[in-house]
User: What shape does this take?
Amino acid sequence: MSAATTRSRTPDRLCAEAVDLARTAAEEAAAPGVVGEHAGVLSEGDRVVTHFFECRELGYRGWRWAVTVARASRAKVVTLDEVVLLPGPDAVLAPEWVPWSERLRPGDMGPGDLLPTDAEDLRLEPGYTGEDVTPPNSAVSEEMAELAEAEDADVTAGPPAKLPTVPSRGSIAAVAEELGMRRARVLSRYGLHTAADRWEEAYGPKTPMAQAAPASCVTCGFLTPIGGSLGQAFGVCANEFSPADGRVVSLAYGCGGHSEAAVMPKPPRPAAPVIDETRVDPFPLRPSPDSGSVPAVADEESAELGHS
Assistant: This one.
């Protein structure tokens, strides 16, 4: 270790003793009564020392007033360099600033909110190149114009090759708009992967619901398939009693509402009554004489009344 390095780490004696000068400078820069006790000395270099004082300002817990003093070579007078308020090791600091685009979370948008996307958003890619280069077999190309002239066919008012502008109907943008596919940007391969990872995490095979499910969505009758490359791994749940109703779910996801998990048997239905309309059942108007508990006798006057 060199002598210069040793001197720089050892506080200069005169600068270290200038505590009163440092305190006076700190009190002039701060509000009255917010400069606390002396909290240490730090050597900044040859004959450069920083004095620290506790800060009693409300809301600045752990902060310190840092007063830097110095003296010239071979001089005995210590002069003031600067006074600043710096955070200490246990100071309360504001969190690191994060751009709004990184703070945004799903569900933060409300009615009327606009979410702009960057021009170089990795999730999107151009939907079409925008170059209106006429294909060789197009009706407005030079080759087709020569063929039309040879066959005496007037596809336009004049030869397309000599028109001042190419007809807009034959442009790539016009054809894309006519087919309903004119989107400036579409989902990129990166956007597809991030969406798949997000859906897989929310409604995928590793969720607790899928782990306890009797079967996966690939065999469920409530699964509605989707088009595109994502349809090979995802679908839309159409079971109103499922926790994923109306959500994009992985084919490996599952829940207790699987269509074939527990098929309820139909309750037995009684047979329909059979009525024989060709048979007549006789119904007597009076009861039979021997149907009672008292036997019938010829002499009604000597008959016993009531039960014995």
Summary: Helices lie at 3-9, 13-16, 19-29, 100-103, 142-150, 172-178, 189-202, 208-211. The chain is about 20% helix and 15% strand. Confidence is low (pLDDT under 50) at residues 1-7. The radius of gyration is 48 Å.
